[in-house]
Amino acid sequence: MNEPTSSSSTSNDRTKKKSESSKCFYAFRTGLPEFPDNSEIQGNHDLLTAYGLGPVERAFNGTRRVKEKMSAFLPHVIGELHLDATKEASSLRALIEKPPIHKEISNLSSSAMQGFKLSAGPVDERYRHLFERKQEVDVLAYSEKSNMIRIKPPYDPYGRNDLLKPWSFRLSTDPVRSLTAHVLLSPSMTGMSETSGSFQYTTVPHFLTNCGDSLLDSPLAKKKRMGSRKFAENVPDVSTDDVEKSENWNNSYELLSWMRNDEIGSDAVMEGPFGPRKVVYCDYTASARSFSSIEKYIQSEVLPFYGNTHSSVTVTAEQTTLFMHEAKQEIRAMSGCGDQDSVIFTGSGSTCAVELLVHLLQSEAGNEDVVVIHSIQEHHSNLLPWRKLAKEMRSVEELESGHVDLDNLKAVLKEVRENHGDIKIIGAFCACSNLTGVLIDVQSVTKILKSCNAISIWDYASAAPYIPITFNGETPLDALFFSGHKLPGGVSSPGVLIVKKYLIQATKPKRIGGGTVFFVNDSDEWFLKEVEHREEGGTADAVGAVRLAMAVKMKRAVGEETIKQLEETISRRVFKSFNKTNNLVLLGPSTVEGRLPVLSFLIRSPNSNLFFHHNYISVLLNDLFGIQTRAGCMCAGPYAQKLLGVDEELSREFVNAIQESPDLDRTHLRRQAEYSQQEFLRPGFTRISFPYFFTMQQVDDIVSAVEFVAEHASDFLHLYQVNTETGEWHHQNQRVFHGRRWLGYIQFTPSGLKTKAKIVPDVTDMNTCLRLAQTLALEASQSINLSKIPDGRVAVNEKFQRLRWFVLPIEIAEQRAGRNSQLQGTVFIPRKYSDVPVKQIPEILGKLDEIPKPSENDAKEESTCQVICDDVVCLLKCDDQSTKAGATENVGVDESEAEDVKQMEDWNKRVIVKRIENLRKEEERKQEWQIPPLEMYKKVTDVIHQLKMIRNGDKVLVCLSGGKDSLSLLHILRHYQQRCNKARSTSFQLGAITVDPGSAEFNPRPLIEYCRKLNIDYFYEEQDIIGAAMKTPGLRSICAFCSRMKRGRLAAAAQFHGWNVLAMGQHLDDLAESFFIAAFQNGNLSTMKAQYTTKDNQLRVIRPLIMVREKALRNFAEEKKLPVVAENCPACFNQATERHRIKQLLAQQELIFPDLFNSLRSALKPLLLVVSAHTSEMRTQAVQNIVNSS
């Protein structure tokens, strides 16, 4: 801090100082930081009056005490006009932008400054938080909410008590929290007018952060301190995890409420034997439901322009084709796919996807031997198709927790390698069991598979709607698939297959026909080479694809991590209740952590070892409460039998009992279903699943309904009859489906479509249904008449009697009548899993009562980013795609761009990872640094030495996008640094920086953890460039805008953090493409410069890879398994850009002239050596370089 000047300086002195330089002065109350004993606010700056605090604070602290605190801790900020007059003023401009009190220094009288001191320059660290501004914040952080009583909101004189909805509070007796709540609601404090409809903060006095430690350390106070940091301030050492989660849950709460109202069928009514009931859909694991807004969008935006995608010359065909491209882009963004991955829409769901995958993995000869290893939990879709392909099928056991036994997996892999040598091994595993909801550790299993050179294939059918999908994570997957119809909103959407391109061996489509061929004549056909086009033959399901894309967008809007936490919270809540429910037998592991709310169960008959039939339990929940569940084995037969305790021998007995006789003439008998008289002996259970957007009250009501059925199932059994040929149970008074909707009722008339009108009766809520069910149970139990109940035991063939595992109505009636009938024991006993210790984590009951603390990391992380949701974000590459403007291609960085970004609201968003000094040798050896090939390394070092790119004392930041080029550059420069240190030559520091432009199509955040593992200084800069582009009127190229803003952020951040060199990853291919773009589009002889210094001489930009080919970098990245982040530019999707077209042109020419790029390298050398950052000087230098070289 500069030496303070006297506050009593004369006006002439101040005028003289103003003429010397335009600076900003900060006025502080004398005596900081202690409270003055007898302080009064001087002059005309009565802050109590200015901020209207009197009516609120006097009730808690008294007028004098409040004045003392405010005069001590609320400073005056005094700025001058014409702040842009000098460079010094410009560098301080952001610090004084719209301060709470802003006056010209010449207008302040001596009396007004009495008792204050002036300080020039950057604000002292002790007082910096006092100058902050916050644009918008949550009403109260969760830590404050948890300390208030939920009764009613505090009094608001302007009647806006709805500001605290959906949570209401009565103030606690703690004056600090009471004061905080009142201030937060005070319009005069927040800068709102009395009629303002938005809750936006403009001026909040920050003396609140000094009222007490409890408030100062709260997420709310931290959030205020983080919200308005300005350029040239140090990065505070705090974590914003709590704030981010608070924001996520606040936003998600409103979105979940909307989803509950928007779900089609949420108000549907069914007609049952006990009266009308509201339909409560609890079978999302099987298939999700539609949402009104999505269907309206399709009706208004998609269908009017619907056309066939096999053409693009008409508006309907082109629009539909673009919808298909965009839908596929949403899938790529959700799963993190790159250009080496194929995304294919596959018919009706996962079954079609696996069938196609089996085809793609086989060559035309089809004679390759394969061993398939799978878990015991697999769905039929991920089991049966592989049996057709595999030479041998091997299963891996599960642990008591329900997870894959990794030791057993290693043993199986080892045995297969020993027995079959280098045979192809495919690992087919589900990410989540569709019977128990247990989530599998995808990365751990994949790492083991990769260690044995096995292909990793994952079934995400049950997991995709509820958890994040990372296709290209630390250990990339080889293929995955899921069913679109299982995502909320994705009804009737296609399945999706994602597969690595290098695995595809088939060259002919699985389904040959329209849309799969390149050309056909009378004698031959040529199929498309691009698998995404070749395998989507026929007329594409464009409407289904759009619906799936909308469902994916909705999932990401809620937040994948938010959904996962909600699902686990519901699981915990339901398991806690079901584990205490009498007669209810839960199938599967007892652990509740890492689990979706998918529960399979049996209801045991009291006083016997038999169970109630699963179809009966399902229909009883339907008739009494309208709850829609699923009964059977859920298409995972082998695992279902293991859960039930059915071994191989018993399984074969069941097959023999329920198989249809082979002597039946199905055609003559017109048999549509396949069944026998003993079908009802088929073992099964009831499954219930809860969507994440259910309220906790809904969950509790459903749990209560299941508990009721578990207790009273025997009271209603005699009212139901079973069809032995189908296993279906129906109420004796409702053998016919009375509420059926008929297509036959539809009539097309000149006045429109007509159908039979349905009268929707009034229905009661779930609580009323529960009370009514109690009455019905009493009435039903009293109505048992033994003489009218048929003896169902005679319907079971005598040789299959032992296989009956469920109780019959006659047996319940005989027990009630006091007869000593001997009930047989059950033929199977469900597997009992041992209890597994479970970590305790807080429940989420519509709001967060407690937010988990952020984990401690070895490397210090400083975060000022405030993320609204855990959405994936797009990182447009600063190395590969720094310029894609089409006709213009500006590749320089200047200080004007840097100054622009400093003024943006999100300049303060960043995460910093600091390098740990003096690591132990064993820790250094664990770092995943890679050594580049000698030829590539030599080309890079030759350029560095010839052009003197890196000098002693330099601090070099690699512009890290996560692409293959920038990642390779990082490892090459690290190796170069190690060699220099060993040779004691050039000494320089190495770090990395990433700019995240805020698109919703990509996730570069894994780079944070990766750089932490590498132990380098790393700066993750966040800036909503894409959002700014969308708000810019008349913008012709998002790519050009993004490129310019990103360059500015890189330059500004590098200088801000104290680094003087930016190393970018453009390679020889990039330079050649840039040259032709400039020549073709602009008529200029120019390309990217090898190195240059910015106009202000503060920063050097270097490109060490200019002599390296792109394919060499790709090979290095793939061979070393660098964590390449997939490229998904939202501005251009998969459409050809100017750069892409030039790349194709050069590739064709290289086939004719193999030495093409060596020639281009020589031709471009004069242009590469241009070192000026001034456009006017570039052409002159280029011409002079050409003359000199000739």
Gist of the model:
Residues 280-643 form the Aminotransferase class V domain. With 1190 residues, the chain is α/β, with parallel strands linked by helices.
Task: Describe this entry's structure for a reader.
Strands 25-26-29-28-27-30-32-31 form an eight-stranded mixed beta sheet, with helices on both faces. A seven-stranded mixed beta sheet has the order 7-13-12-11-10-8-9, sandwiched between helices. The chain has a four-stranded antiparallel beta sheet with strand order 16-17-20-19. The N terminus is likely disordered. It folds into four domains: 230 residues, no CATH class; 261 residues, Aspartate Aminotransferase, domain 1 (Alpha-Beta Complex); 253 residues, Aspartate Aminotransferase, domain 2, CATH 3.40.640; 329 residues, HUPs (Rossmann fold, 3-Layer(aba) Sandwich), CATH 3.40.50.620. The chain is an alpha/beta fold and 1190 residues long. A hairpin with a 4-residue loop joins strand 21 and strand 22. The protein is elongated. The longest helix has 22 residues. It starts with 10 loop residues before the first helix and ends with a helix. Keywords: Nucleus, Transcription, Transcription regulation. One of its GO terms (cellular component) is mediator complex. GO terms for molecular function: transcription coregulator activity.
